[in-house]
Every structure is written in C-alpha cells, then in structure tokens.
Amino acid sequence: MTNFDQEYQRLNELQRAAVDHIEQGPLLLIAGPGTGKTQVLSLRIANILRKTDARPDTILALTYTEAAAKNMRERLLKIIGKDAYYVNISTFHSFCKEVIADHGEYFPLPKDSEHLSDLDRYQLFEELLDELKPENLRPLNDPYYYVKEIIKAISDLKREGISILQYEEMIRFEEQEFLEFKETSKNKTKIASLEKKLAKNKNLLLLYQAYQERLRTSMRFDYDDMINFVVEAFEQHELLLREYQENLHYFLVDEYQDTNSAQNKLINLLLAYWEEQGGAADLFAVGDPNQAIYRFQGASVENVLAFTRAYPNATVITLDQAYRCPQNIYDLATNLISYNKLSQLEQLDDKIQLVTSLKSPKGMGEKIKLFKAPSQTLEAVAVAEKITELSKSKVPLHEIAVLYRNHADVTDLMTALEKWQIPYQLSKGDDVLVNQYIVELLDLMTLISKITTAQEVDLLFRVMNFTWIKLDHLVVMKLARVAGKLRIDLYDLIAKGLDFINRELSGQEISEAEFLTVNTFLEKLRDFAQQDQVLTFNHFFEQLISKQGFGFLNYIQSLADSFEQITVLNTFFAEIKVMLDKNHQLRLADFLKQIEVYKNHQIKIQSKDLLEKPKAVYLSTVHSAKGMEWEHVFLINLLDKKWGNQKDRSKIKLPSGIIKNTDLSEKERNEDDRRLFYVALSRAKKQLYLSYPEKIIENGQSSDKFPSIFLAELKEIESKLGQQLIENDEKKTLLDQAPSHLSKLISPALKSTHSHTERAFLTAIIKDFKLSVTALNNYLRDPQEFLENNLLRIPRAKKTALSFGTAVHVALERFFKLEKQSDQVPSLEFLLQEFKLALQQEILGAGDFAESLKHGNEVLSSYYQQRLLQKINVFDVERSFGTSRKAVLGDIQLSGKIDRIDLLDSKKGLLRVCDYKTGKPKTRGGIEATEKSYQKDFSERELNLPASIRGPYKRQLIFYKILLDLDRTINPTWQLSEAVFDFVEPKEKGSGKHILHAYSITDEEVADLKKLIKEVMQEIRSLSFLDALPPARAK
C-alpha cells in the first residue's frame, strides 16, 4: 500500500469528495479549525499526479505565508517523495517575484531592483510630508505623527487593487455624498467628522500620487507593488499571460478567506484561459471566513461571496468533522462566532453555511479553566506554576503554548518563566534593536561618533561598564566618584592625569597599570573615530567587533546562548549591508541617524529566529499562532478593551466602496476581535486555560480592569447549552504563597546549560539547508569554517578581491546576454562600461575602487582580444539552482550557479559549462590537486579522498555536472560534453595569454562525488561534526 493510499483511507467522506474533485470545475472548501485542510490540499495534489498525466510543475499552490508553503511541501514529500520539490508551492509574493525575475523585459524595473525596505518607506514619506506639507496629515507639533497610518492606508489601497484614478473617483463620490448630507443635516459633530475624513483622504491622494511618482523616477517599488505589477503585465502582454496559462493547469489557494483583491485578480487572470476555452477552471480554494483575521476592514465573507458569484456553478463543500479540539471547545467556539452578523450568510447564498457545528471524535474533554488573578504579575506566576506542574506530569514543553493579543502582554510572563527556569520560544525573533548586546554595541558606536567633541559624558560611563569592554569596574567607579565629587565630567577628569585623580582617592589610589587601560580605551575610541572617515562602513564594523577592536564578537561567542546571539548580530549586520547597498559612502553618523528613524517609528529589525527549541514553551500572539496547535493552550490578559470593545484608533479612514461584495455597515462592532478570539480558542488539542488580571500595575500606578466581553459571552453560551463547560480555578495555594513567589521573581535567575539548545538551533538551520559546492569544500577543509561561514554566517566584510571577481562576473553575464539577444559580439567598450557599473555597486574605498577599475580594464581588454571576439553559441548564463529551479539528489537539496552554459552541438545535444576564475591561473595539477604544493592547506580528510574528487576545483566541475543532470528544465537527451575553467587573468601580466583548462567528467567521478555528498550531508544533519571540533571552537 502506498503512502497516498494509507493517508487517503484515513479521510472522512467529505474530505475524500474534495480530494477526488479533479477537472470538475471550481471548488470552494470551507474548512474550520482542525478539519484537516492542509492534508486535503496535499492529498489533492498527489491525486492529480495519480489520476492525470500532469507533470508536477503544472500545479500551482498558493499560500498566505512561507511557513504554510513549507508545511505543505513537507507533507507532500512524505506522500509522493521528491516530486514534491517540483510542484509550484509558494506565497503570492514569491510567485510574482519569480515572474518578474524570469521576464524582466515586461517590467519597468532594472534587473537588480529591490523593493523598498521599511526604513526606505518611512524616510521617503518623511521627505514627502516635508515637501508637500499636507495640512491635515502633518501636525505642526509632530510632523510625522501620521506616517505609519499613511503607509498602512496606501498599502490597503494597493492590496485591494485601487489605483490612484480609482481612489480619486471614490473621493469625488464621497465628497458629493458629504455635500448632500451637509445640506440636509443639523448634526454639526457628524458634519465636522465627515469633513475631516474627506480632507485627510484628499491629502492622502496627494501623497499617494507623489509616492508613486517618486517610485517611478527612482526605478523602485514597494512590497505591495509586486502583485500589481504582475497583474498589469498579464493584462497588457498576452504572450506573457499565455505562457503561464499554458504551463499551469491546476490551481490551489490556501487561506482563501484572507486573500485580497489584487491576489484574487491574479488568480482570475490565470484561470481566464480555461474559461475562454469553454472548459471549467480547476481552482481549489480552501478557507474559513470565521478565521479571517487579515482581510481589509474585517471583510470576512468577501471572498466567499466573490467566489460563488464569479463561479455560480462552483461546488461548495463544508467540512464538519474536526480532529483538533475536544467537543466542549468546539461547542463554545462555534456558538461564539454566531454572534457575528457577517457570519450569518444563509440569506445571501444557500450553498454556504458558515456557522457549522463541528463534531469531534475526542469527546467532551476537560472543562476549560478560568483564573481571575489579583494582578498581571500573579497571572504570570500562575501560568509558570501550572506549566511546571504539567512538565512534572510528563507533558512535553513543546506541547504547551501561551497566546496573547500584543507582544507587550508577555513581558511579565517571560520574566516569570526565566525565574522558574522554564525554557521558552518566541514565535518571531525579537526586535534586534532591543537586544541587550546590540543596544550596548549601538551605545559604543554613538560614543565613538561623539568622542572628538567629548559629548555624551553619561554614555561614556555606561559604556566603560560593559562587561565586554573589559575595564575594571572598581576603577570606573572610582573615576565616577571623583568626577561627581569635583563636579567635572569624566573626560576632563581623565585628562587631568593620574596624580590629580589619586589626590582625591587617599588610600584607594588607582595604579598606573589600571589608569593605562582607561587611557588605552579612550585612545581606541579616538582611533575608531578616525577610521570611520577612512574605511568603508562594513570594514569599519568588522574591525569594531573584532578581537583587535573591542572584542564584541569574541564575547558573544563565549556566551551560553552564543548561537542565538550570533543570529541576532547577523541580522543587524544584514541591515548594515542593505544600508550600504543604497549608500556606499555610509558613515557612522549616517548609520546612527537611520537607526534613530527605526526607533522613532518603532520599526522592528526582526531577528531571524531559526531556533526551534524541542523542549520549550511556545509564546505567540494569536495572529502568529494561526494554523498551529498544542495540547495545552493558555490565553492570558483577557481584558475588556484589549479583547473586544476597542476604540477604532485608525487615524485615516478610507472611503467606502473598496470592498465590493460585503456591506461592512452590517458588522457588529466586535466582529474582528471575536474572530481572533475564535482562532485563539481553537488552538488547544486537549486543555484550554483562560486568565485575566483584576489590576494592572504600570509606572507605580494601579488601575482596576474588567474582563473581556467574550468571557461573558462564553458564560452566556454555557447557560444556553445547559451544561458546565468552564470552571473557575481559584488557585488558593498560589495566592497563599504569593509573597514567596514575588520574592522569587526579584531573585537572580539561575544559569542553565545550553548545549542541547545549540544543537537544536543548528538542526533548525540544517532543516532547510541547500548544499552548494562552496559549502561542501568549506566543510571538507574545516568544519569550523563551514559552521561559521555557511551555517552561522558570522558577519564578515567582503574582501576587495571578491568584489573585483563579482564585478567581472556581472560584466561577462551582461556581455553574453547581449550577444545572445543581438546575435553579434558586443564591443569592448560595452564590456568595460558594464564592469565599471558593476564595480560601482560594490562596497569599496576610493583607492580600492580606482585600483580595481584600472586592473579590470587591463585584464578584460586582454581577455576580450583572446577569448571574446569569436561568437559563442550560448545556451544560458548565470543559471541558478536551488530556488525556483530545483536540483534534488535523493532527499538532498543542492544549490549553485553556473557562469555560462554553451550549446556545442544542437543535433547531438552536447553542452559545455564554463566557470570564470579571476584569481591567479592554476595548472591542471593545481585543479586536480595532484601537485603537492597545492595540498599544503588540505585537511586530512581531503588528502584521503579518491584522486578523482580530491581537488576542490575539480569537485566544482563535477558538482556542476550533477546539477545539470538533475535539471528537469533541460532536454533530457542533452549531455555535458566538457567542463572548463576559463582564467580571466592572463598567465603573466601583459602577456595576453589566458589559460583555459577543459575536462570531460566521467561517470565514475560523478558517482564518487555523489557518494561524498551523501556522506557529508548525513554528518551535517546528525551534527556529528560538532563532536570533532575542539570544545573552545565548538562553543
């Protein structure tokens, strides 16, 4: 029995009907929480491949998040094996990004154009507000007060596919309605409110127009433009649309309730071909309107109505068997959602029944626990105590989650969990800018920027006390004491010298050696202030954190949670590189100014939290918890005006008419929050715990709080059903012991070992790791180098030689693309101009740039004369593997990029791969590592490899042969005839002789390298290589 058959037999009748609905027209599957929608989606894809002759790449499955796409592919892998890699499973944005990348000629953007970052957008709108001065969106006392709301409003317009012209028309219509209302109404308050709304929308229109014009002239785009660009290209270029319509035959959309108008338009364009041909579009949409928590203005039923109106003959299946929660939770959740007026659709469409009683095979389950805590602190203690109790009763910590409305709600709980020594995992990485060590690093950088003017005296004292600065804290305290006594600042005090200071420290003098460390520290600050003016900022930063600088990197590598802190540092460094890409002359002052924009607008630099801790409690907002489940779920801080009865705080209200199929005036005021609460309730597989504090203490002030309206509704439902589903948890023992618990909260947390955490961290990274030949060579040479460079990716500035090589590769890529398109050899001037443009994109100092440009012009001029004058039959350039083009060896995903592929003989299907080398030319003995001089840096393992794959360079060519063999987009009858290394640098300077080494790759060499790849990946996945590292290095 196949994996598919086994999984298919487990389906219920309605699930099977959905899985078997193939080539029968559109289907809308309404799937409530725990009804198995992801399994149905995965099995339907497998069933398409079973019952039709469709290739995997003719299926397009679109999801709402990258996590959902990954989950679907993992399930599919278990069912159909490696064919799952070739099914198109992606988010809407990833799909559109690929369309733009593959068909750049249809889009008004440079190939290397990037969408605006959050920082870019905020800075751009600050500029526009200063230029346009819109009086209703730029208060004098706080000119950037509306920036966040402006960005959100324009984003909403774009996501709903509202162009500037359409928005302008909506405003005109709204103005006409307002004038009519003003003539007939005596309600001055309402008139003033509508007038203000209209004025803000007119101002917003000006900003929208100016923003789009600025994007156009700067050849940039924002994240929301990506889908609209593809929609416009599909509408304007029939050939482009036809290509995708003819290649994609089956369409699946997950989380359909949250797709926006732009996304729906994209789907409809792809499906139009099948409608035109008189056939039925094979669209399979899955969603639950009761879980719509992202749709614009809470239009939860908009997509359901749009679907049945666009496809009146569509089949609608509503799943009514649910397997996640016990029956008592489903009963409460289903009855709760019936309070929402928009969920009562029976009168609008008789096919649709949204409030369906879900039936669970688990029985009624344990009563839901409700705890009323005296304060938010004791609520956190109660949760920590209960988790400790569950852990002692053998409940795995990863089966426990604490959910909350906002990130701020979990601060007290995190403190309690740390003191109770309960490991936890945050659903998203923390904001890098609030990480303790990054805050300290930024303080140091600020101090360096102010050192020449002796500003920030308080900051000097704080930085001198950082552990990693390694100054004696007692010495710093003595200096501060004397400075305070004499009422002078630290800079002036230190400048007066040791004798002066010691006269004020009778009996507690500072030694000359101790004072020297302080002066050395100040000298280093001044030295880095000078280096900031000389070094490129990435090199400045690398020096700053190095051992020769202030030792920051060494320090975080010595911490118990070093891997996590390195991830945070990597995220921070990645942001620096983004800033540098936009401004190669970035200096410390510019950088700190941009960081201030982040802080002022509360823009987060989200840490890439890769650590999936196998033994940790999960902490998450309810929004982030959607689609997830745990045995035990705690919902905390269930307060009025946090959960329900919230004021509408939107500062810019867009016109009505954006949503086409839903009358939003019918909404009950708490509908959006109630749907979110419904999602929260339905995360629990076994037991649900609800709690709220009676008092909140903030800034020393206590305020009484009221429980959420939804708790009252649950009690009302309980009464209506005539059975007790919720019981009050008095926690008398906990309250009696409150003083000791509060003492525990303020005591120091105990240190714990993190070795298992480090392994879990690396396991999480390796789960999605794609092996490149560079990573393979690094691993073979030195596992520590592989760990740092390929897994942890410790921040390192790009060396000048690498920047030079990148520019040469880009120039040759553009040269051969033009040659292929024009069918003639481009000029030397074109090649040199492209090299210069590419070099300008690299982060280089003025001296390095001038030297690299001069050297490149010489080298490429010589190379052009010997290699490029004769036209080459190029098949492809810079062919990438591992992203949209899959290369899978067994269950191992490979990645790489081949510089150039030539078609030597189209009749025989003979190919040649060419790899450019910009370093010193090597002999054949060097490439194959047969010469001893080339083996001096080899590891013992490399020396013991078979001769056929001993040399790193030779391994590279064989690896390329494997990539091509696995490439399903190339004619399967074509073969690699030869692989060459083409050295761009001449053999000797000025000689004009360029070396080219050609190889025929044998089956034996391929088999040897495949065997090695499998061995290496087994070691990487098992983390056995860590055991071979010395303890200090493995840390």
In words, what does this structure look like?
50% of the residues lie in helices and 12% in strands. The strands form four sheets. Strands 7, 8, 9, 10, 11, 12, 13 and 14 form an eight-stranded mixed beta sheet that branches. It has a six-stranded parallel beta sheet with strand order 3-2-4-5-1-6, with helices on both faces. Mean pLDDT is 87; it is low at 749-754 and 1030-1035. β20 (975-986) and β21 (994-999) form a beta hairpin.
Any descriptors?
50% helix, alpha/beta, globular, 1035 residues, 21 strands
What ranges have pLDDT less than 50 throughout 5 or more consecutive residues? 749-754, 1030-1035
Q: Quick one: overall form?
A: globular
* Rg calc: 32 Å
Strand content: 5-15%
Quote the distance from N terminus to C terminus: 46 Å
| Biggest pleated-sheet summary | 8 strands, mixed
Give the tally of β-strands. Answer: 21
SS-based class: alpha/beta
Please state the average pLDDT score: 87
